[in-house]
From TrEMBL:
Keyword line: DNA recombination, DNA-binding, Transposition
Organism of origin: Roseinatronobacter alkalisoli
Entries under NCBIfam families matching the protein: transpos_IS6
Listed Gene3D superfamilies: Ribonuclease H-like superfamily/Ribonuclease H
PANTHER family: BLL1675 PROTEIN
Ranges for domain Integrase catalytic: 64-226
Descriptive protein name: IS6 family transposase
Residue intervals passing through the bilayer: none
Length: 227
């Protein structure tokens, strides 16, 4: 449950602003006008604080409530500009395109890849296979995870495939994330970038139908994750 105690605006207002920013390619200036049209006067800084504070909490809820995913994964990273520098947004989807996990990193190296794979496995279980690109860092990170699996005696090793065309599904999926972040014109800080991306990915998961909708629209599903 996400705690809204102490907030100076109603929970419904906060959730509407956060969801709209994460789901559609709008700037905070656009969102301020949208909120004013609905009779709510709130400044840019306040809405930014809402996104940074609540997005990771709602994303954590989403990981526990999403539908089961397949055991064949596709992993890749895309570029996100933070403080004027390109950073790396690690992402994984299953063979059906369902989002598994995501993580922003300042570096694209073996430790970052290993950290991402361990996080994804912690949230989704051990897959049968993972398709990656030709990146040596990603291969080394995944091989390190396999060593850990072997040493812990789980009896399960991950099959590693480096086949470019099999990764088309995640490369196409990057576009939905970039469509939203492109309007944001870069992030000023790593923390706010990571938090916002958590929320964007969650809104994208709702769009892909990864939760039991039970007749609820996209915003209602988002609000339910915060309930």
């Amino acid at each position: 449950m996400v705690d809204f105690k102490g907030a100076h605006y109603p929970k419904s207002v906060i959730l509407f602003a956060v969801f709209f920013y994460l789901r559609y390619p709008v700037s905070y200036r656009d969102l301020k006008e949208i909120m004013q049209e609905r009779g709510v006067d709130v400044d840019h800084a306040t809405m930014n604080r809402w996104v940074v504070k609540y997005s990771p909490l709602i994303a954590a809820q989403a990981q526990t409530k999403k539908r089961p995913t397949a055991k064949s994964w596709r992993m890749d990273e895309t570029y996100i500009k933070v403080k004027g520098k390109w950073m790396y947004h690690y992402r994984a989807v299953d063979r059906n395109g369902e989002t598994l996990d995501f993580m922003l990193s300042e570096r694209r190296d073996k430790p970052a890849a290993r950290r991402f794979f361990r996080r994804a496995i912690g949230n989704n279980g051990v897959p049968d296979r993972i398709v990656i690109d030709k990146s040596g860092a990603n291969l080394a990170g995944l091989e390190a995870v396999n060593v850990i699996l072997k040493l812990t005696g789980t009896g399960q090793m991950i099959k590693i495939l480096q086949v470019k065309y099999l990764n088309n599904i995640i490369e196409q999926d990057h576009r939905s994330i970039k469509r939203i972040t492109g309007r944001m014109l870069g992030f000023k800080a790593f923390l706010s970038a990571s938090a916002t991306l958590d929320g964007i990915e969650t809104a994208h998961m709702i769009r892909k139908g990864q939760f039991h909708a039970n007749g609820l629209n996209a915003f209602q599903q988002f609000a339910l994750l915060a309930a």
